Amino acid sequence: MISSRRRVGSWSYLKWGDIIPIILNDSIIAVRIKVLDIETSKYYASFITNEAYLAIKDWMDFRQSFGENIIYDSWIMRNL
Question: Which superkingdom does the taxonomy of this entry point to (predicted)?
Fold first, then answer.
């Protein structure tokens, strides 16, 4: 949350496909994240650190290791 300057409630609208690594020469140089403005229903771009991306990716990989089908439209945070 700190890396992208998002508020707690915005996690309810974040999907795996909204987080886009920018790769150059097989290295992640930046990670773009879509931010939805709920009032206007418009998307804006923000960025997160590589470390934040890797932490989210670890979370998604963990869920996938237990059989969850992780796709572009998978929610980042979900109920248990």
Answer: Archaea
